[in-house]
Amino acid sequence: QICLSLVKLLFYLAHSPLGSIALLDFQPRQFVMVDGNLKVTDMDDASTEELSCKEDNDCTLDFPTKSFPLKCSMAGKCEGINEKKNLFNAYRYFFTYLLPHSAPPALRPLLSDILNATGDLRYGINETLRAFEKVLHLYKSGLYLQKRPLLLKDYISLKGFRTVEGEGHKCWPSYSHLGCLLSVHSAEEAAAICNSQLHCQSFIVTQHRTWTGRPLASFQSSWTDLVPDTNAVVYIKRLASSGERL
């Protein structure tokens, strides 16, 4: 969410009515989240000036660990230098820390492609935004789950019950530090996640949703502590309930 919001902001800055705008003091502390959107807190160090040049050799974009050769345009300006400066700063201050973590395994190669392409400045802001929107579409639609074995059949569903809330087994990345609370597309994906966890015996898909509209599922290491809840369904591994009649 943070990276996508940042890319949308940089897309606007690259195509603003004033021209391409560079954020000269590009640091995480210069941004805040407001209603799920990233905002710049200080525009004092923004600039629409692009570096003047006479030849391509005048257009090297330098960073502490990398340098990028750019083209000198017919107008005597370094082509896209403001856009590329913003994008590489987004890569080194945000993408490298946030993109490799917490995505479903099927989407990680796509995020890795974005990371590598922006780190080498092979993508401009237009291509970067399209790549992020593609990942978001796959994530929200559940299309990344195609051609996976159906595992929900290995679970017994109990309608009208939920597990007692409390400290359970931990997992990463969890929306709750007390237990294992993860975003899922469906109960089928939750079953796959539970199967992949050594201590998971049951799960419940909650009524709470993330910014993408995906429900949160709570995974538990036991299923014996059940309480009535007309709006809930608890899913229990058949192996966990063997020998018991539900």
TrEMBL record:
* KW Kinase (keyword) present: yes
Give an example GO molecular function. Answer: non-membrane spanning protein tyrosine kinase activity
> What are the FAM69 protein-kinase domain coordinates in residue numbering?
2-116
InterPro entries the record matches:
FAM69_kinase_dom, PKDCC
Q: Which UniProt keywords apply?
A: Kinase, Signal, Transferase
TM helices/strands, residue ranges: none
- Can you tell which superkingdom this protein's organism belongs to? Eukaryota
Q: Please name the Pfam families in this protein's record.
A: PIP49_C
Instruction: List GO BP terms, alphabetically.
Output: skeletal system development
Q: Which residues form the signal peptide?
A: 1-22
Protein name, as recorded = PKDCC kinase
User: Corresponding gene?
Assistant: Pkdcc_0
